Amino acid sequence: MKKFVAVFLSMIIITGAAIFYITYIWTQNPYEPDKNHLIIGGDIITDIEEPLLEDGNILLSFNAIKKYLDPNAYWDEKLGKVVFTTKDKLITMKTDKLSAMVNQKPVDLNIPARVVDETPYIPIQFLQEMLDITATLASGRIAVIDYNREPVITGKLLEPRGIKRDSSIFSPFVVKKLDAGEKVRVFDRAGKWCKVRTKDGVMGYIEDKYLETGEEARPEPLPQEPAIEPFKPEKGKINMVWEHVVNRNPDISKLKKMEGLDIVSPTWFAVTDGEGNIANKGDMEYVEWAHLNGYQVWGLATNDFNPDNTHIFLNNTDTREKIINQLLIYANLYKLDGINIDFENIYVKDKDMFTQFMRELYPLCREQGLTLSVDVTMISGSANWSQSFNRKALSEAVDYMAVMAYDQHWASSPKAGSVAQYKWVEYGLKRILEEVPAEKIILGMPFYTRLWQEQKVDGSIKVSSKALSMSGIQKILKEKTPEVKWDAESGQYYAQYKENEITYKVWIEDARSINLKSSLVHKYGLAGAAAWRRGFETENIWAVIADNLKDKEDYQQWAQANNFDLLSLE
């Protein structure tokens, strides 16, 4: 019995000693001494490459920056070039170069970007302002990154105390003792424990009863240039029209003033090859005519609708830069007010590179005072070109997004149908609004219609069509005199007739259908409307659009004035 008691007492003593050692004596260094370490905010980052530390400079791996600081960072491995973008800044660095380009102007670096073991490393202090962070070196080999947007909560120790590794009294110390009055940064709480970081960059926990906490005043932000606001009309919503220029610009002596119009967008520029060369059809006389009539000019640039060339130039950082430089030169040369990018037939695999192109163009347009817009197709569930746009990401890299709400049934469609059925337009618009802010959307409307032909060939129906202007289709209807009926589903008049064993069908765009479609601008709080294309409309169209976008103040006002149209859509 005495032996049992002795053993039992020995076990108690040993256990107590172990608890005392763990609780009050045992210190465990959280950092390996032969490595560099990275802290971001209140977290020790261990799942990414360790930073490089050289003479007070911190180089973070590109992977760390992309994962934790800037998801839009871009690395061009072939060219050894890294790209960072914000709304107002385009920063590029080439590895092993002691300079960077900020909005295309050279800036000296203390230390160059470089590639180590196939991983690019970037001098992070240079990017502090752009990323809105503060990067510092703590004692030892610890790089500390703090987000400036987060409030700084500090805790002052009320008595000498150590910092634990975990939120438990039985956890080992990471710091044996801090003196009373010393400050730590507090990040969050776990019960009665506070997660803190010491001035030496050590992360750990301390009970809140030993801290007097308070929020530090944040440093004054650096002086900022005045915010650049995108174009907004003096009255109402944006009213824009595209000017289709094929070989020559229109004769301005024959152009009439368009009521309520704010912007003309001529199709002047096209990237013609994979090397980024641009064909230019700009016309200063046209710009002077537009400005004299109070219209802004947003020069439109296409990718020539060539997906192979587009793939080549989008995937080369230098070629993207070449294209951007040319567009900016032309914008300055012709005194443009904006640039409208209309890249179509893009391979789905290139959609992220198209977004990157727009990110790189946006800050340079803003610096030059240009409004930047991009054209996108309606969302479709089928595997077609509509999936080539990351609409949410694109909306963050432009002032406006023009949604081309037409070609529901396109030129080679196997089935005859409306170019832009009202309910199809509204449904597609609702889907885009799930991803894009309403105040950035310009609703694209068609000024054209398609005359469809259905002909029996070898027992099957062959379908073909041709695009016609509003006056063109009215001329045919007057000549053929078919019965014309209002179709509530499409929000258009419909007619069909037969001639020489061929059935002709048409869903008509006119003042009434445009009135309906343009009402969606107020219904969903959009930025405005645009139309493809000038010259395809009848003269009465401008009064309809001007009334809806400039005179009507909201959708309710429009609905009251057009009650018969609303009833006909039920």
TrEMBL record:
Coiled-coil portions: none
TM annotation in the entry: 7-26
Alphabetical UniProt keywords: Membrane, Transmembrane, Transmembrane helix
InterPro entries on file: Chitinase_II/V-like_cat (IPR011583), Chitinase_insertion_sf (IPR029070), Cu_amine_oxidase-like_N (IPR012854), GH (IPR017853), Glyco_hydro18_cat (IPR001223), Mao_N_sf (IPR036582), SH3-like_bac-type (IPR003646)
All residue ranges annotated as the GH18 domain in the record: 236-552
UniProt keyword Nucleotide-binding present: no
Top-level taxon of origin: Bacteria
Cited Pfam families: Cu_amine_oxidN1, Glyco_hydro_18, SH3_3
PANTHER family: CHITINASE DOMAIN-CONTAINING PROTEIN 1, CHITINASE DOMAIN-CONTAINING PROTEIN 1 FAMILY MEMBER
Name of the molecule in the record: SH3 domain-containing protein
The organism's taxonomic lineage, starting at the top: Bacteria, Bacillati, Bacillota, Clostridia, Lutisporales
